[in-house]
Amino acid sequence: MPSDTLVLGFDTSAAHCAAALLCGDRIVAIRAEEMSRGQAERLMPLLQEVLAAGGADWRDLAALGVGIGPGNFTGIRIAVSAARGLALGLGVPAIGVTGFEARAALAPAGHLPAIPAPREQVYVAPPGREPSLIARADAPSPLFDDAAPGDLACAIARIAATRRHSEAPPPAPLYLRPADAAPSRDVPPMLLDG
Amino acid sequence: MQRAGPMPQTLTVLGLESSCDDTAAAVVRQMPGAGAEILASVGHGQAELHGAYGGVVPEIAARAHAEKLDVCVIQALGDAGLDLGGIDAIAVTAGPGLIGGVISGVMCAKGLAAATGLPLIGVNHLAGHALTPRLTDGIAFPYLMLLVSGGHCQYLIADGTQDFTRLGGTIDDAPGEAFDKTARLLGLPQPGGPSVEAEARHGDPARFRFPRPLLDRPDCNLSFSGLKTALLRARDQLVAEQGGLTRADRADLCAGFQQAVVETLAAKTRRALTLYLQQDPPEPVLAVAGGVAANEAIRAGLESVCAEMGARFLAPPLSLCTDNAAMIAYAGLELFRDGVRHGMDLPARPRWPLDDSSPALMGGGRKGAKA
């Protein structure tokens, strides 16, 4: 069993399954697979492979880091739900890390971390501003929008490690867009004697 | 699927359910030679989240489940006075249902199972309903089951914990959907089941003669979509003539609609019972499950068919008729005894018929019964 603090970071916020194991300040195992579907089936086996590659067991973990998006709604729920189940079962904290925070750790100087969204849009969170969904063409500065999934998982693990002692609510998906839902179109008739 | 080793004597199973608009967790225990006992059963309904939309919105449901499942588990364990060390297996609804919610439940259960090393058991939501009579009353196989809810309507013969034969079911909408739609068309509150039933109580069921679909066919299949259309036409005709509805019109429409559902279900139940009784079961039982089984008129109709045909009528308490996690924990317990175990690659399935050998009743549409 490794003696340094172990933190497992993972992310399924886009068309990938990615995980990294941080031991002290070293990443000791990474797995990242591109996939447009099947993350719910693949995530847990992939996490087990990362632990095994790092010579660790679930019980060795001090904390979990999970990517909370924004991104694919189903994808972020897959990772967040797994993280909350694991945290409850292990009795360790699960720490939610936004896609902006993870990319900020990776972005070249002068580039704005951006998360690709459908229809030529990106999610951005410029310093001091609320995160939002904008057209790619309206970006205020050069974008960093092609983070490798494995790098994201490493960044998530590192950020979670720095926060593992701070009190925080359980991780929750960061959607930034309301659910698609239209109020019922059925208009009831007038009640004549109502 | 893997096979298990020796069985512990007493089994305690944690169950998770999130396939529609209830987030739920429960703990069920069975001692050797005794009936099963529900140690805890908690649920967070989402009615207020979906109220404005006149029905369950899948994305809204999925969002709520993802942040409530672990909370429900903590509460259920607390109510049962246990921690995860007192649990022998983790059961979770793995389908059929709204896939966003099912995925959250499956992932939370996988996380719990991986962390604790406990066995994971994926349960068919319909099997949860179909095995409930064994949880509540210790009924022996084979029995006839009518699942009748907002998402489902089917007749099943239960021959074993994993052995179900579907005799028939709805080819379009479930009756619960028709009740909800009726409530929306008449300006009554959601969910439509209780509000339409309350209204029907002071209405005249004979004033509007709505269709009893598929009664001319000898099988056990049902259809409720034409009934909704017939109700809409009757309503629109009254509105065209009078400029609106009177309270009496509304009550009569509800009574006529409910009567059509009652008679259709009674007639098809008679056919399903006839087929089931041909098996010569030693103690014939018709059991119902699903929220629609709470309707007193429907229940009375089914009871009288059972009395006429010499079968016992069994309706679990409402809290175990509607979606709940105790039935998932119990089904998981029975499957665990059968040696069923699932791996960490357990899929979440939007469609998962209990009886794979029967032909599909539905097309590939997104609405309607899920199996």
TrEMBL record, chain A:
Domain named Gcp-like: residues: 33-125
Residue segments, region Disordered: 166-194
Cellular-component GO terms for this entry: cytosol
InterPro entries: ATPase_NBD, Gcp-like_dom, T6A_TsaB
Gene3D superfamilies found in the cross-reference section: 3.30.420.40
Pfam families: TsaD
Protein name per its UniProtKB record: tRNA threonylcarbamoyl adenosine modification protein YeaZ
TrEMBL record, chain B:
Protein name: tRNA N6-adenosine threonylcarbamoyltransferase
Cofactor note: Binds 1 Fe(2+) ion per subunit.
Reaction equation(s) it catalyzes: L-threonylcarbamoyladenylate + adenosine(37) in tRNA = N(6)-L-threonylcarbamoyladenosine(37) in tRNA + AMP + H(+)
Organism, as annotated: Cribrihabitans marinus
GO biological process, one term: tRNA threonylcarbamoyladenosine modification
Classification of source organism: Bacteria, Pseudomonadati, Pseudomonadota, Alphaproteobacteria, Rhodobacterales
A UniProt-annotated Pfam family: TsaD
Subcellular locations according to the entry: Cytoplasm
InterPro entries noted in UniProt: ATPase_NBD (IPR043129), Gcp-like_dom (IPR000905), KAE1/TsaD (IPR017861), TsaD (IPR022450)
Family: Belongs to the KAE1 / TsaD family.
Record-listed Fe cation binding positions: H125, H129, D323
Gene Ontology MF: a single term: iron ion binding
Binding site residues for substrate: L147, V148, S149, G150, G151, D180, G193, E197, N295
Cofactor dependence: Fe(2+)
Compositional bias per record (Gly residues), positions renumbered to this chain: 362-371
Coiled-coil portions: none
Main function: Required for the formation of a threonylcarbamoyl group on adenosine at position 37 (t(6)A37) in tRNAs that read codons beginning with adenine. Is involved in the transfer of the threonylcarbamoyl moiety of threonylcarbamoyl-AMP (TC-AMP) to the N6 group of A37, together with TsaE and TsaB. TsaD likely plays a direct catalytic role in this reaction.
Region (Disordered): 349-371
Boundaries of every Gcp-like domain copy: 37-330
